[in-house]
Amino acid sequence: MMEIDINKPFDPLLIQSLAVELQLRIGTLPKVDVYSFHLEACAGDIIQCLRVEPRSLSEISRTVRAARTMKLSVRGMGEASGSEKAIYVDRYTVLIDCCKLADKPRMELVMCHREGDNKDTPGLRVLAGVTITELINFMVRKKVELYQSPDMIPGIGTVVGNIVTASPGVYGPSSGALGGCLADEVISMRVVNSCGDLVEYSDPHKLEQYCANMGLLGVVYNVTLRYRELTTSVVQFEFQDWCRILNSRSINHYFRNSDLTELIYLPYNHLRSGQSLRHDWVPYMDEVIIRSTKRLFTLYDEDLSCAPRHYFHIIDPVMGPDQRQIASFPEEGDSLIGKVYKVLKNELSAANMQTQYTPWAMTCLAPFPSPVRMLRFAIETCCTMDPFFDFMRTFLEMLMQMVRNEENNDVFYGTNLCIRVNFTGGNRTAKLLGVGSLNPTEDVGRRLIAHITFASLVRPGISKEWRDFSERITNFTFGCIPRSSLHWKTEWHTLR
């Protein structure tokens, strides 16, 4: 067996030698290949590492044990990790891609005996590599639902990926969820440790260490989540301008009475033909879509009734406009986004107050079109929503000054798609990334987390407009909102 000297100068053939040696130590399966990709922040730099795609638990164990003998790092890997995504690897890292696991069953309803409990807890066991779409379809088929729903809008990622990165959910505190992310609903987790052994954790304190650890403590094989019987929800859409939302606090009652509250903002939608973006656009006059859901009480299973599933696109693929036109001609962005908003508003108005199965109601918005760049951060607010309202006033003023760009001749076209705001429950066990506490002595149930996502369409490759926009937003966020934090990009669940 060859000896690996990590202090040796860079050798372009080293990664190939490592792949051959690792394959010898693993055996026939799984196959080891050289995985090449580039990161958005390192244009032109190609990063290489080792990757395997195991199809069973035994193949994961063999890979971990073989990598340990070569002193290689091991990372879990999920859907859509590569290309322009950020993953924590170097040439001495082995990525274990669990998306092709073929062990059966992929999902099942089980009774889980948790460490320290004297009774069994019903749970939904999910195999690593199961996508969110698979989970939604399984729950509707089995007539069950989770207490917290993962965010479907990014359109990528797996259930386990949401858990190990503590990606924010969509349910508010009135839904019965224990916290603001799917990781809060885990009652058991099975992990392949550094020795290649499968270890199960069900103690709440140990689970807190393995959830939201970026997969650094082992390769997660499956997880078990709390569930309850399937319900239906009424989906409501309202349209209010920022001025009314911020001054009359008209959305406060949604947090007290709704399971989900979301704001969807497509900028420039109040501008009329012939009006100037620099001189006539005032963001306070733009309309905002308020999406909320409320569960219906169901006594018997046969009373469950549901309209056909809704699946709305921010940019309608039939009615248009063409998303390539928005990305390629930024000077026409304000008028095109105005058309996008009118089409979307008509579609949502026609489906207002209809009943959906609750898992469908949580995920009725389709993923963003591609290619798109996303930037997400979170801030903590309280039940009165004052910190959030103060932040949005400051942000809209900053956005107006940035877009008008009066110091230069050209208008700055930074955001050309939408801004979303989701509200979830408080920061349970500090799992939500980087979210501080306004008042540590306050009851967690009285706090809210606002998750703000910026999305812009770009042309393939590096986008100077998006780079400048994200830099300004990041500086503004860290400078004005000290308790806010950008959400991390990870190898399991990434934001584009």
Structure, described:
There is one protein chain. The protein is α+β, with helices and mostly antiparallel strands. It has 3 domains: 14-100, Uridine Diphospho-n-acetylenolpyruvylglucosamine Reductase, domain 2 (2-Layer Sandwich); 107-229, Uridine Diphospho-n-acetylenolpyruvylglucosamine Reductase, domain 3 (2-Layer Sandwich); 232-486, Vanillyl-alcohol Oxidase, Chain A, domain 3. It has 13 helices and 18 strands. The protein has helices at 14-26, 57-69, 132-142, 159-164, 204-210, 242-248, 252-257, 277-280, 323-328, 333-350, 358-362, 386-404, 464-480, and strands at 32-37, 47-52, 73-77, 93-97, 107-113, 120-127, 144-146, 186-192, 198-201, 219-229, 232-241, 260-265, 287-296, 354-357, 372-382, 418-424, 447-457, 485-486. Strands 14-11-13-12-16-17-15-18 form an 8-stranded antiparallel sheet. Mean pLDDT is 80; it is low at 1-6, 80-86 and 487-496.
